[in-house]
Amino acid sequence: MKRVAKPVFFIVAILIIALAVTSVFGVKTQYGDIVTTRIKGVSDIRWGIDIKGGVEATFQPADGVDATPEQLESAKSVIETRMVANNITDYELYADDSANKIIVRFPWKEETTNFDPYKAIEEISATATLTFRPGNSYETVDYTAEGAQVMKTPTGETAATVLVDGSNVKNAQAGVINENGQTKYVVSLEFDAEGAEKFKQATTDYLNGTISIWMDDTMISYPTVNSVISDGSAQISGNFTAEEATALATKINAGALPFSLETVNAGSISPTLGANSLRAMALAALIALAIITLFMIIVFRVPGFVAVIALLGQLAITIVAVSGYFPVFNSFTMTLPGIAGMILSIGMGVDANIITAERIKEELKNGKSLDSAINSGTKNSLSAIIDGNMTVVIVAVILILVFGPFNMLSFIFGLSTTGSIYAFGYTLLVGVISNFIMGIAAARLMLKSISGFKFLRNPRLYGGAKK
Which pLDDT does position 17 carry in this prediction? Predict the structure, then answer.
């Protein structure tokens, strides 16, 4: 076996520990009273209705509009699009044609502290109209909590002329650019054929001038046109945070509702599990992790120690996939079945490392040298681990496709089960994938590296007989 350099173990272990710590606690910076999230942690996860409770709201078309079943279904589709775009998977959504209403239930947002149901529904019911206008004339100025100016209410030619509107935007996506050495969040826009032609004409007419970008009556950017844009692509730039850029892209993608919605009533839903039960589960998870750590180290020694580090990495990747990690991504909705999927995947991760450790032990008992036993053991255990994990991957993918945003069989199982089962499939799939990354790739790399240290060359430390 070609040995892996000794420092590799420390490099991989440090990276795994750093990922584990940041994924659990997150990274936040504070300037005065302003706290900025750089990396999301467990506290930023959006918990499902069964754990944290949520909001129940009933909408109806505003101004007495008698919507057709098709229009009501279209409005429901837009709300569902906004749910999915915000990674809200634990929701219930119904369109009542006879009563001309839409009923929705969804969990609280992760940073919610005041639990105001009317404020919570703004993210899914708000209508926002994007317009591109000539010039940048405005009437009033407001200020954000950070002291930044917010220009509102267009006037003059800016108010009178709309060059392109949001209906011509094909796609919007939040992104990051580097400008003069500084990182800036932007929203990239792609226009449809009609919008591309309109925008080309607008940039031709106002070359070297200003085209302001408005969301409803708020000016969000007023770039100078430096060249004619004919490829149908543009960027909205401004003093965006990651959350603001993502929220803006989501609103643009969701598009305008076929009619304005008004909230008939809204209220809070009590959780079936609750915060105290969640803390109890967290404590139980820590105790279980400690028992697993002791078991792996006592029984399998060096391979067990390496397996524990790999297990931390697997858990960290799963948390990263749920929390969103970087603020530009939305948090996934974690439900009780989602936690069950995470626990099951961790159990499979432990199983993969046990299979490898047992195979190494068998090779040592057959008289092979340490290096040869590690090489043969890791190689011979691979097929069994892949076979076991692939069957789970297939099941997880089926659960995601059936109970995910596509709702392929929701007419059989009902919408109320969709988000919960989807969360189970999602965390199970992520856990299995992270098991391949950590339990197979990283663990074997660390094992081949750590076995190069002279004081760890005794076969007994790997399950073999005494020299």
Answer: 95
Interval 191-200: pLDDT, tens: 888 989 999 9
Which CATH entry fits the domain spanning 54-127+263-269: 3.90.76.10, 3.40.50.1370, 3.30.70.3400, 3.40.50.300?
3.30.70.3400
Cα separation, 368 vs 381, whole angstroms: 16
Q: Could you tell me which of 128, 214, 126, 208 has the C-alpha nearest to residue 163?
A: 214
Report the C-alpha gap between 440 and 427 in whole angstroms. 19
Judge whether 131 and 165 are in contact, CB under 8 Å. Answer: yes
Q: Is the pLDDT of residue 418 over 60?
A: no
Sequence spans of domains, the chain: 7-31+273-462, 54-127+263-269, 130-253
166: tokens are: 């949001």
Instruction: Quote the Cα angle for 260-261-263, to 5°.
Output: 150
> 85 vs 128, 130, 185, 243, 333, CA distance in Å?
15, 18, 18, 13, 12
pLDDT tens for each residue of 142-168: 776 456 678 889 999 999 999 998 778
Instruction: Enter the tokens of residue 368.
Output: 């092979």
For the chain, first and last CA: distance in Å?
A: 20
The pTM (predicted TM-score) of the whole model is 0.67
Average of per-residue pLDDT values in the chain: 83
10 Å CB burial of residue 400 (0-12, 13-18, 19+) is buried
Q: CA-CA distance, 467 to 465, in Å (whole number)?
A: 6
The topology (CATH level 3) of 7-31+273-462 is Multidrug efflux transporter AcrB transmembrane fold (1.20.1640)
Q: Is the pLDDT of residue 212 over 60?
A: yes
Three-class secondary structure of residue 162 per DSSP: coil
